[in-house]
Structures are given as structure tokens and as C-alpha cells.
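Input set for joint prediction.
Command: fold jointly, output C-alpha cells.
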Amino acid sequence: MQTPAINVQNLSKNYGTVQAVDDVTFQVAHGELVGFLGPNGAGKSTCMRILTTWLPASSGYAWLNGYDVMYQSMEVRKCIGYLPESVPVYGEMRVREYLAYRAKLKGVERRGRTARIDNCMAKCRVKEVQNRLLSTLSKGYRQRVGLADALLADPPILIFDEPTSGLDPVQIGETLATIKELGGQHTILFSTHVLPEVEKVYDRVIIIDKGRIKYDETKKAIDAQEASYLLDIRGPADAVTAFLREQPEVASVEAAPIESDLTAFEVRSRDRKDYREALAGRIATKGWGLRRVEVKRPSLEAIFNNVVQQRYQVEVAGSPAPTEPDKTPAA
Ligand SMILES: Nc1ncnc2c1ncn2[C@@H]1O[C@H](COP(=O)(O)OP(=O)(O)OP(=O)(O)O)[C@@H](O)[C@H]1O
Ligand SMILES: [Mg+2]
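C-alpha cells >
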């Protein structure tokens, strides 16, 4: 089996009594584009800092392209491009000057260095500010310079900690398009809070909460989950509801009135097949008017809320969340 691009085994990190990362295990295959999601304080940045060798783990292991983050940090750094949560600012440097300095530091060959810098500036749309002092850039532009920096040495693995933070909606769209484009040639792990946007680009999503992985699923598997159908039907609501409930493909029906004889139904299907035509055909034979048929797939936002809220439900119910013995050895 090919070595995974990112291999994390039982990784934990505690800051004193705060368990920021708690026994995290996952692998990312070469070329995969993974959205790393979680509420504030979930442990995303801590995890990413460990993977990029900027922070030692309390216990556990991580390898990037087969290199150990603890013992082979120089090799690891050569194969990653990292956009940290807060981009370091060298305020007195101009954008091009800064990128040239970073390219040299990263060992980008002198021959072709200028072309590489131009290429990365174009990709991250910072060419128009190349002669500006970093201290005079807006947050969004600084973020884009950080992204260009991460791409300079054309590393196989990219780790972006909230690449869209501080960007306006247009820039968010553009940055996500850049990430998607990079996804073909690089392995990418990126964290974000903008779920509807992630939906457009990711191959796989990992949700972390309170330092633990709560969800790990591919887009393909999420897209194949049982769908709901949204049906607006003109007809006697009670009779239509009863009829829908009788259909063998239907697991549950919810009804909400729109007008006197028009009702919005949300129908859950029993399996993953698409029953739209079958249901529409049978509704027509009853003489009822079908105003809308739509498939509703679970959104990332719904999945996220479901995963993260389960925790709050446990806590609110009065039974304290289960605690486990501290497995972390003293640092
Ligand atoms: N240097 C530190 N010292 C002490 N505690 C820390 C430190 N850095 C992070 N933490 C704590 O570790 C936990 C995880 O923080 P982390 O920054 O990894 O979360 P995050 O998922 O990146 O959150 P956000 O979405 O807000 O960026 C939090 O409880 C945070 O307060
Ligand atoms: Mg963070």
C-alpha cells in the first residue's frame, strides 16, 4: 500500500490541563482535498501546528509523506506549504521582496525563482499589490500573500489554516476556486468555518470537536446518503399525507401548510434510490397538483450541527459528558 500523504496516529496535545487534541487518528491519501471543520477551540490549529512541526505533540505520532514530524522536521517542512492561522507580518517588506526572501529560504532554485514568484502571485491574485509594504495591506490581501508563500516551493502537501478568514465573499469564492484547482496536483488539508463554501470544493470532511474526531466521511458517501424529497402538493392535506405514508419507498412524512389546499411535504426515502418520478406519477393519478419536486441532500451545515450539537445535548441533559482517564503522559 502507498504511504499516505498524511498519517496521524493517536495524536494528543495538552496545554496544562486543557486537552486541545485528544487521541486523533486519521490518514489522508495523496491528492485528497480534506476540509477540517470544528467549532472554535476544537483543536484544528493545534493539530495543524503539530503536523507542520511548529508544535510538539504530547503523545502520538504523525508522518507527512512518510517523514516523522518529531524526528524528521526538516524533511517534513520541505514537503509542506503551510498557511498558519495568523500570517506572520514583516511589515517593512514589500510583497514581492517578501516572497523572494521566502523563496530563497525555502530553497527554490535561483534559476526560475522569479518566474515561480510571478506564478504564485498570479495564482493568489496579489500581483497588483506586489510593490506595497506588507504593513499597508488589508487582512484579505495579507492572507493571499500567505497563500502565495505556501505555494512557492511547489510542495506536494498543503496545510491551510482558515485560508478564507478575513476575505470578502468574492475573495472567498476566488480562494476556494484556487484551492480546488490546487487539489488536482496537491494533497490539501484546510480548516474553515464557512461550511456552504466548503461544500463546493471538498473530497472529504473531518469534523473535530473538543480535540476528538467526531465525523470523517467522503463527499461521495455523503452525496449517496438517503435523500429527502420536498413536494408541494395541491390537494386535501390529510388524504395526501396518508397516501404518501402508504408508499413503500417512504420512511416518514412531514407536512406544513402553504395555502388553504397547498401543502409542503418533506418525505424521507427508505434508501438511496431516486424515487422522484415514481412518486410524481402516482400523485398525478390521484388528480392532485404537484407544484414542486426537489431532492434535499444533507448539507455539511446540517451534518456539522448534528455532530456538534450532540455534545451539547448530552451536557444540557444534566449527565456530565463522559470523561476518560488522562492518557497523556507528562510532557
Ligand atoms: N498556547 C496555548 N496555551 C493554552 N491553551 C491553548 C493554546 N493554544 C490553544 N489552546 C487551547 O487549545 C484548544 C484548541 O485550540 P485551537 O486553537 O487548536 O482550536 P481551533 O479549532 O483552531 O479553534 P478556532 O476555530 O477558534 O481557530 C482551545 O481550548 C484553546 O483555548
Ligand atoms: Mg484555529
